[in-house]
Amino acid sequence: MIAPISAIGRGISRWVSTVGALARFLSVILVAAVRLPAPGRKVVWRVFKDQIWFTAVQAIPLLAILSAILSFLVISQAVKELGRLGASELIGTLLVLAIVRELGPLLTALTVAGRSGTAIASELATNRAMGEIKALEGMGIDPVHYIVLPRFGGAVISIFGLIILFDIVAIASGLVAAMSSGMATTRYFEIVMRSLTFQDIWITIAKGFVFGGVIGLLPSFQGLAAGGASTDVPVAASKAIVGSMLGIFLLSVVFVLFSI
């Protein structure tokens, strides 16, 4: 009877400790952004641009295809079924709430977490295993400045931009689906714009920055926390992707609760 309760207590304790460590790590990153030395800005900026290229630009085709297919399938079926019921007005609500506000940010974040989050954790864990982190520290270079900060910033900006792209493609693909089902273009945009509110816009923007922060924070934390063995690299990558996906889902629930 005592053993299960003790195990639950240890699990909760580890979870609280991890959350606290992540909060401290985030504060270190934010302080590093403010106190970034002038000589290192050019290097950090170059790494930041590389991160944007890998995380955002190279992911555009994949996200655009996912968005187009998802929106086309949902809207094409919705136009047919809701049209029969005389409830075509609900198409805009379905597009805005289900795709633009919920599935768009969620699928974008999960896709980037699986693609770029794993890469960040693996790269930093490899740097740790090969002694590059200690080498930077030995030269008086803060690894947070040179390695973590540009990846964190790149993830935040990339997720924000990709979510906007996902929503734009979803609306455009929804138009194609609506037109193929006989709905006029003006009617489609009238319904969509009537359903889109300021709350939908700011929630989408907030999700972009928050989800990007999770993808930039957790993989970097797990990568730097890895041991010195090469076998620790896949372990760090696994922890990073699982933690990122769990964090994204939990934060999605929090957004829903606060938007009710």
Would you tell me the overall average pLDDT? 85
Q: Please tally the helical runs, counting DSSP H or I stretches of 4 or more residues.
A: 9
- Elements, N to C (H/E): HHHHHHHHH
| Oligomeric state of the chains present here | single chain
Which secondary-structure class do the elements indicate? mainly alpha
Largest sheet: none
The count of DSSP E runs of length 2 or more, i.e. the number of strands, is: 0
Q: What is the helical fraction, as a range of percent?
A: over 70%
Through-space gap between termini: 40 Å
Name the overall outline: elongated
Based on the model shown, name its key terms.
mainly alpha, 9 helices, 260 residues, single chain
Structure description:
The protein is mostly helical and 260 residues long. 87% of the residues lie in helices and 0% in strands. The chain has one domain (40-259). It is built from nine helices and no strands. Helix 4 runs antiparallel to helix 6 and helix 6 (143-180) crosses helix 7. The longest helix has 40 residues, at 90-129.
List the helices and strands and how they pair.
Elements (H helix, E strand, L loop, with lengths): L1 H33 L3 H18 L4 H25 L5 H40 L2 H7 L4 H38 L4 H11 L2 H27 L7 H28 L1
